[in-house]
Amino acid sequence: MDKVQKFRKKKVAMLLLYNGAGYQGLQKNPNAKTIESDLLDAMVDAGVIPKEGAEDPGTKISFQRAARTDKGVSAAGQVVSMKIFIDVDSPVEKINKHLPDQIRVIGIKRVTQGFNSKNHCVARTYLYVIPTLAFCPVEKVVREDFRITDDIIAKVRSVLEQYKGTHNFHNFTSGKKPEEASAKRYIMEFSMGEPYVRDGLEFAVMTVKGQSFMIHQIRKMIGIAIAIVRGLASEDAISRAWGHDKFDVPIAPSLGLLLDKLHYDAYNRKYGNDGMHVPVSWDEYSDVIEKFKEEDIFSVIYRTEKKKRKMLAWMSTLHLHTFDEAKMTAAGVQRETSEMHKAFMNVREVRKEKANSVRL
After folding, report:
1. 38, 72, 232, 299: least buried by Cβ within 10 Å?
2. CATH match for 2-120 among 3.30.70.580, 3.40.50.12780, 3.30.1390.20, 3.30.450.150
3. DSSP classification of residue 24
4. What is the tens place of the pLDDT at every residue in 338-356?
């Protein structure tokens, strides 16, 4: 132990991959199973940080995560910064020996003493692996063998394009007032790739890149996009949700969401080639990252969706939303039923009548 104390501590950036299943999120939290708790304990066991570094990481080792991930959410490109004992041989291998297989440290790079993985991050990219049956038109019966058409794909992409730019997302999170400056967020990209089939279910990967995101923001962005494409919400629902009034925005399931990449363009331009530091980028690990993403994140999403039907269960309650502004009455806040919602309920009644007539 005396020998360890003589080691030099230096600031580093660490690339971390994990499957969030079974964890209460990333951030260390007393009496909760979190990714950070397991990581910090493993680093103590590996001799990379002192014990007090795990107990009070923010103060003792300047620990900082680049982006939070919520309960069950995975990451294929999380970056944390901290001070570690730089003289420890093979720190990555030693840390991984003390981690469960669903958490992997991939690389460690020396950074400037002032580097902060959160503050120096200029953009974040998230993926959402979605079963395409989520976009089944409301007038049709949702089946697991649903296959998305070119017309629906085009509509999805058109809806997602609306998000690009700077908008007020106070209705896409919780506890945020419309007049708060922090409610405005800048979205650089929102797209959906080509569909593919796994275990009989068709999936597609949605990609969203933004400067930063608030809690639940991405899942709510996807939730209302699904409602529009299905025909449950009007085409202007997104732009109306950016308004000052409270707006009914559904939150899509957490299964399928993962942090994919963190971008350090400004830091890399300034320090990446100064002769003393290297860029905070991980291109040399792309094969390892893709392998982990496919085998330890995507495959779990496929199996879980097939077994537990998370999206189908969520879709069964989607019609309960009004996708409209909240209206104030003497009795309090009351949502006004939208014309789209009324139309959907009429369709449900017609389908019930048809089903009853068939049974008779």
Report:
1. 299
2. 3.30.70.580
3. S
4. 455 555 555 555 555 544 4
70 classed as catalytic? yes
Measure CA 269 to chain center: 27
The SS3 call for residue 104 is strand
Pick the closest to residue 91 from 1, 187, 9 (CA basis).
9
Which of 2, 38, 56, 70 is flagged as catalytic?
A: 70
Residue 196 annotated as lining a ligand binding site = no
Beta-bridge partner residues of 64: 81
- Residue 140: in which H helix or E strand, if any? none
pLDDT digits (tens, 9 = 90+) for 207-220: 999 999 999 999 99
What is the pTM assigned to this prediction?
Answer: 0.88
- What's 288's DSSP letter? H
Q: How large is the angle between the packed helices 217-230 and 150-161, nearest 10 degrees?
A: 140
* Residue whose tokens read 């990446």: 272
What ranges do the domains of the chain cover? 2-120, 122-354
Q: Are 95 and 84 in contact (CB under 8 A)?
A: no
Which residue matches tokens 């989607």? 318
329 residue type, one letter: T
What letters, b where the CB count within 10 A reaches 16 and e where it falls short, cover 337-358? ebebbeebeeeeeeeeeeeeee
